Amino acid sequence: MSELEKQTKLSEGITPQIQNRQPGIESEMTPEPIYELESHVGSGKLKGRVALITGGDSGIGRAVAVGYAKEGADIAISYLDEHEDAEETKARIEQEGVKCTLHPGDIADEAFCFQVVDDVIKAHGKLNILVNNAARQEVKNGIEDISIEQFKHTFDVNFFSMVHFTKAALPHLNAGDSLIYTTSVNPYIGHDALIDYSSTKGAIVGFVRSVAKELAEKAIRVNGVAPGPIWTPLIPATMTEEMQESFGVATPLGRPGQPADLVEPYILLASEGSAYMTGQFIHVNGGQFMTT
């Protein structure tokens, strides 16, 4: 059985489950997400580079962190307070013979974002790749059910944190370095139960394309990835059992994605393989973008 067939079989085995707090705990999921493939053997694409990944303790962030480590990068992980997941990710990264530092705290706090970057520079000596990935979401029936406080908090975590991290990182970036942002398929197709979340992800699209134009003359590349339905801790932590029952099955590929499905696009955007790409988004959504 191929790895892809194993992924599909595991995805079919997903049963609805509820976690009571965001952003969720990966070790409590059944089955746990697939964050790496045995077929990915690093070839030194990121050797000697340092990457800071927000939300890197679990889900897509964990998959990217481990993938970058396999390619030779030292890793810094920002996360809220899921210490067990973070330590597990750190241990896996260090198996690749690279350095990993953990930076827990609330990215909704501007001062914390700047402090993380300062700490990364002190611990690693430099910063070459910033992956703005962490996010929150809440399922609501419609716009009238979303308070202004929720809208503001979602923007603070999903959008303004990226602004803060970007501003903090820029003085340390040089030609050939990369800024990478996680958006979503949702701002392209809409989602009536995730209006504030989708709005923040749409703002990220405009931000990336604008900053890409600004930084092009410095040869700093700015790109993003737009995932579709991916099996991460955020799903049991935010979605109803009914939503989970149909999660991802309506995509042309007929299954939810796994974090491992995202690794290669993030590696591409961080490496010299994307030297002529900026202001772009790679869509990884099982074909969902085509069906809406």
Automatic annotation (TrEMBL):
Region of interest (Disordered), ranges: 1-26
Protein name: SDR family oxidoreductase
Regions annotated as coiled coil: none
Keywords tagged on the record: Oxidoreductase
The family this protein is said to belong to: Belongs to the short-chain dehydrogenases/reductases (SDR) family.
Record's keyword annotation contains Oxidoreductase: yes
Superkingdom of the source species: Bacteria
Organism: Jeotgalicoccus nanhaiensis
InterPro entries: NAD(P)-bd_dom_sf, Sc_DH/Rdtase_CS, SDR_fam
Pfam families: adh_short_C2 (PF13561)
Claim: Endoplasmic reticulum is one of the keywords in the record: no
